[in-house]
What does this fold into?
Amino acid sequence: MTETQETEETREPQESPAAGRPSRRALIGWGGAGLALGAAVGGGAAAMAHAGDDAEPAAAGTGGAVAFHGAHQAGIATPVQDRLHFAAFDVKTGDRAEFVAMLKDWTEAARRMTAGKPVGEGAFDGLAEAPPDDTGEAMGLKPSRLTLTIGFGPSLFDRFGLQDKRPAALVDLPAFPGDNLERTRTGGDLCVQACADDPQVAVHAIRNLARIGFGKVAVRWSQLGFGKTSSTTPDAQTPRNLFGFKDGTRNIAGTESGRLAKFVWVGDADTGAKDAWMNGGSYLVARRIRMNIETWDRTSLQEQEDVFGRDKREGAPVGKAKEHDEPFLKAMKPTAHVRLAHPDANGGITILRRGYSFTDGTDGLGRLDAGLFFLAYQRDVRKGFIPLQRKLAAHDALNEYIQHVGSAVFAVPPGVRDSADWWGRTLFSEEA
Amino acid sequence: MRAVRLTVTAAATAATLTALAACTAKSDAKDGAAVQVTAADSRCETSSTSVPAGHVTLEIANKGSKATEVEILFPDDRIVSEKENIGPGTKYTLTAEVKAGSYEIACRPGMKGHGIRQKLTVTGGGTSAERDPKLDQAVAAYRQYAQDQADRTLPLAETFVKAVQDGDVAAARKAYAPSRLGWERTEPVAESFGDIDPKVDIRKPDLEPGQKWTGWHRLEQALWQKKSIGAEEKALAGELLTDLKDWKERVGKAEITPTSMANGAKELLDEVAKGKVTGEEEYYSHTDLVDFKGNVEGAQRAYELLKPVAAENDPALAKELDKQFAALNTLLDKYRPSKDSYDFVSYDKVGEGQRKELSDAVNALAEPLSKLAAAVVK
It folds into this structure.
């Protein structure tokens, strides 16, 4: 985070200069990719994610900065970074002005951190008698393509007289068969998704926002993700999930403006007077999906491939040669994951997936506490995640090996336009 | 009990203004004539209000009916030198080496209370920069608070110790938490002495190899887990009382500065965040909320004494601290039958959701409190 690495806020992410040398972590990823092939669950998937996505452009932009300002928030259609720290917060203050002031403070901190700068007066300056403004652990690290994306949960709209602004599309998620949701991993008045190529940069961002928020908001739960499972970069290989499979291969790319407008961004046609503030935004569903890793690993290759409807090596749909070959759904088992989830089987329903593999170590029984932290953006949850999940929860062969243990839904407002703008302005500002 | 004990001392040392050095102050002035101090039950007369720097001698005569104590005090009430327990009708000569500055002589008939004060100006070289008198007042008032808490703790500790030594488990359990309250309110001062805290307030997991477990928590374990009192416990109770008397005697000499007060307030909240919210502090008795309340009260006292200065330098911070202290106190009140009771709900009956709520309220207060020291010095 030295001054020389500052990037103009207008710079497009793709144009981020290739850093003089690949970052240390990128190197680890590279080395790991070769070694980890076929390795057991743990680090393998993460390493392959590097190999899959960053192989040719040489770990290129991984150290650079992603523009914070724009029509849409970064962290949705922008290229998927390697690491995640996602936090859900509860509002603790009843004072709207105080909450708005915090959103402005958060925006300023986010603007600085995404540019690779420390919060406030930094980590080493300021009065000796006071704790430093910035916690310091990201000093000397690159911006690492950090993106910070804010969302507002349904419960926020019970506060501050916002009842009339709650979008119709921001529904409470219904209970799905098989759900086993834990209170301490579910819900939240607001969320911040921090994605970066360096985990310390992502954790630093959430930590500092939480600190600024004390007294106004409190962390309800948070989740670390160590390896991306999706790509929004065209032509890239889809990263493998912890089952060892590529999933969601037909994800929406950041360059597909037509599909983004059709499936991801909220537009004029979706909103009325009460939720026009969401124009340019999106809706986010977050699900902590625990995988029964040990039982999966005892499952025959044939069954594993049948469950997904793909071959494990290439990710090709049943009967096809390559990952991106058009699938022939009827060749798959009726309960195969791809057959059930594919847009062609769901009237075209498409969501932008941005999930991460996680492991929080092991549980008390020594089983890997691991799985997929599913993140999906869509234009309308009622036409995206809900019908899809209804179907999957009822029929998906994968249900034998997974359990949804955490859940949340958020309205993700449009982007912060410029240096005078702030997160949530269109919702909270009277003149907006 | 906590690990970091040096903050108060370290901060104080740097900021001490008219430091008394045992032998280093060089004064070319001749040692002044002795100041005659006539102490009685309701008066404290001195023969002189100004003396040259160097060796100052007080010739004290107690003409009252009670034992008395005479002290030379810094502007912030820290003791330069003192003589306790001067009997009625007796005399004592007290000498001290004092640098130039403003001091007070205090006679404390009955050896308690604020005492009767007389000004003493020490003239000559070696003065240091003056501190804002408002801050001196804050430190003096806080020292008095700390002393008062220690004074009031002793009889409560005696009740507890007597119950242990009588082998009365029920009475000892009842007296346990109240005996700790004054300590919890002013813990950073007690911790600044370094040696007392590990003897009276150490928890089992914090013991070093070979270290003998003594103090309140050792007795807590006997009372709640073993449910029995043996000869060892009775002896430990006696030791606890001895150590607490030592604490009481030393409060007046503690290095206290505005910065150490502010940081001490923050540290009290750190104590709550680390040990009380988690239920680790009172692992056997579950009286964590009593300590919790004591910590908050002590922090609030320090803050309120510093507030005249802090509110001037950073009004927004003072407003936020007022609000968050009130919010935390309101939340704590839910766990006791009335505002003058310290019969808090046993912490094992406090659910996870409630602990999260308490933790959030502690964070909401501790974060702005961490900025108090800066608001006091700037």
